[in-house]
Amino acid sequence: MELTTFFAVAVGGGTGAVLRYFIANVGQSWTPSNFPLGTLLVNIIGCALIGFVTALLIGPLSQHREFLRLVLIVGLLGGFTTFSTFALDSFELFEDGRIRQAVMYIVLSNVFGLIAAWGSYKFGSILFTTTSA
After folding, report:
1. Per-residue burial over 90-100, b = 16 or more CB atoms within 10 Å of its CB, e = otherwise
2. CA–CA dist 28, 121 (Å, integer)
3. Residue 132 phi/psi, 5° resolution?
4. What torsion, rounded to 10 degrees, do the Cα atoms 24, 110, 34, 81 define?
């Protein structure tokens, strides 16, 4: 890999992370509840953007596909939300007629993702709980 590749992904990723922070906070300010509206908005916007960018990369921007894929999908949208990549992977499995694999991917990603988050939270809580002497 070239240094320009790493730089392109880093610039895109940093930009995506800043955009995620900004949009999530603005979106969260729209509700008085603690429902994660900001994160939901980021995930939906990310899913829409990855579909649009993918269409551009196989259409009018195909001559620059690999570089733009690295900057926009891996970098920008990777920093913005990985949920968009999950959505695109799922869509592509359905689109390819691999329905069983698509459903398995969606179920396993959600179930094991939730188990991993819960389990590591519980483990970390036990590990990092301070005991008063």
Report:
1. beebeeeeeee
2. 23
3. -85, 135
4. 0
Residue found by looking up tokens 């590591």 in the block: 120
DSSP state of 97: T
Which candidate, 77, 13, 10, 70, places its Cα nearest to that of 47? 77
Q: How confident is the model at residue 132 (pLDDT cuts 50, 70, 90)?
A: low
55 vs 15 pLDDT, higher one: 15
User: What digits encode the pLDDT tens for the residues 28-41?
Assistant: 999 898 888 988 89
Residues 6+ apart with CB under 8 A from 50: 73, 77, 84, 85, 87, 88
CA–CA separation, 17 vs 77, rounded Å? 9
Instruction: Kindly state the tokens that stand for 111.
Output: 């179930």
Could you read off the pLDDT of 61-94 as tens digits, one per residue? 888 899 999 999 999 999 998 788 789 889 999 9
**Termini Cα distance of the chain:** 53
Domain ranges of the chain: 3-80
Tell me the whole-structure pTM to 2 decimals: 0.74
